[in-house]
C-alpha cells in the first residue's frame, strides 16, 4: 500500500481509534482484502531501533508516567500517530478525492507499465477540474496574469493594451509593485473594489468593497466563515443546515470543526428543488441537540446541477429569517446556467428586493475562479461578500484571516480579470466574449448530451441539465448486486462505481459520498471531458451497465 493510499485510508475514516495494536489488518474502503497498516510502530530499521528508547533524560519529559491519549506511549516511536492525530480530521471524509480516485490513479500507473486492461485510459469524471479535462484557458486572463508575473513584458507589443492596463493597475496595488509580495489579508484594495463593482452591476444593488474578502478559492473563504460558528452556546454546538446531496466540502468542514450537520434533502422529483417542509423537518429533528445557526444554499447545485427559481429562493430567505439563521450562499457556479428557462438569482439581490426585514439579514455569499468559463482551479482565487454582519464578528473574522497573512496574489489577479473583463470599447473584448461564450456553449451541449444518454440507459433517471458542471443520475441496482456489495462491506453504489472503474476506466463518485435518500443509488459524473471523449465514455458506461445487469439479475 502506497503512502498516499495509507494517508487516504486515514482521511476516509478507515482507521479505528483504538490504541492497542501496533499493526492491524483492516479491510480497505474499496473492498480490497485488507492491508497491513502499521500504526504506532515505525517500519524502518531506524524506527524499530527507536522504539522504547528514552527520548530525553529531562525530568520534564519523563514526568508523565501514565500514558494518556495524545502523548507518545511506550511502544511508539512517534509523537504524532494515526491514533492521537486530531480526531475530527480522522473522522472527516472527502469523497471527491477518496478511494475511488486513488484506485483510478493506480490503474493509470498500471496502464503506463503496460498492464493489459479492457480500456486504454482512465477518464476522471470525478472532479470539477475543467483544465485537467482539456478546457483551454481564456487568453485575456492568462495575458494579464503573465504580465503581472513578468512586468518586463509590459513593453512587448504582442500583448494588448487593455491587458497591460489591467496588469499595471494590479501591480500598482501590490506592495513593492510585485505579485511576490504579501497583500492585505482581505486582498488588494483595488481588486476588492472591482469585485464590489461587479456585484453592483450584476445585481443592480450597491455593494461596499469593505464587505469583500478575497480568498484562496471559495473553499478557503467558506472554511474561514464556518469557523466563526465553532462556539458552543449553552453547552450545545452550532448546527449548520446543508443540502443532501451536498458538495462534501461542507460535511468535511463541519466534521473538522465539530459543528453539527443538519441535512435537508433536495427534492429529486422536482428537479432537485428545495422544499420548505423538508427544511422544517430537518430543523425539528435536530432540536435540543444543537443550536441551528447557518443555512447553506448551493445554487446552482453541486452535485445536483439544479438552478433555484426566484420564488424558491424567497421561501428559503423567509425560512432563514423565521428561524434566525445566517445564510451561506455558495454561488460559485453563477455563470454555469444551461437551461434557457432558468436564470441565476443571487440570494443578495432577492433578499434586498424583498425589503425589510429580509434585506437586513446576515448573508455570506461565495464566488470562485475555479468554475464558470474560467476553470482556473489550480490558481486558487475566490471572494466572499458578507453583509449585515455584526461589526465585532467581522473584526474577529478579519483578525483570524490575518493570521494566515493573505490569499495567493495570483489568485487575486485572476479574480480581478473575472470581475473586470474587457469592455466593449477595448481591444480584447471580442476575443474574450467569443472564448467565454464558446466555453459555456460547449459545457451546455455536453451537459445535455450526458443527461440524454444517461436517460437512454435502462434503469437510469437524470434530471434535466440546468447548471453547474455535474449530472447526478439515479439508477436501480438489482438485489443480487446489493447483496454482493454488502458481502464486501461496501455501499452498493460504491461497489458499482468500483466495478465501473475496473471495467471501463471511468472514474465517477458514488452518490453516498454526497449523501442521498436511503435505498436510492446515484453517482456524480462531471460534464467536463471533451465532446468526443464524453461520447466514448457514455457509450462504454452504457455497455457496462447492461452487462452489470446481466451479471447480477
Ligand atoms: C459548490 C462548490 N463550492 C465551492 C467549491 C470550491 O471551489 P474552489 O476551487 O474555489 O475552492 C466547489 C468546488 O468544486 C464547489 O463545487
UniProtKB/TrEMBL annotation:
UniProt keywords, alphabetically: Aminotransferase, Pyridoxal phosphate, Transferase
Pfam families xref list: Aminotran_1_2
Keyword Transferase on entry: yes
Catalytic reaction(s) noted: L-alanine + 2-oxoglutarate = pyruvate + L-glutamate
Gene: LOC106742862
Methyltransferase is among the record's keywords: no
GO BP terms: L-alanine catabolic process
InterPro entries xref list: ALAT1/2-like, Aminotransferase_I/II_large, PyrdxlP-dep_Trfase, PyrdxlP-dep_Trfase_major, PyrdxlP-dep_Trfase_small
Pathway noted in the entry: Amino-acid degradation; L-alanine degradation via transaminase pathway; pyruvate from L-alanine: step 1/1
Organism taxonomic ancestry: Eukaryota, Metazoa, Ecdysozoa, Arthropoda, Hexapoda
Subunit: Homodimer.
UniProt superkingdom: Eukaryota
Cofactor(s) required for function per UniProt: pyridoxal 5'-phosphate
E.C. designation(s): 2.6.1.2
Enzyme's top EC category: transferase
Source organism: Dinoponera quadriceps (South American ant)
Domain called Aminotransferase class I/classII large: residue spans: 145-540
Name of the protein described by the UniProt record: alanine transaminase
Family, per entry: Belongs to the class-I pyridoxal-phosphate-dependent aminotransferase family. Alanine aminotransferase subfamily.
GO molecular function, one term: pyridoxal phosphate binding
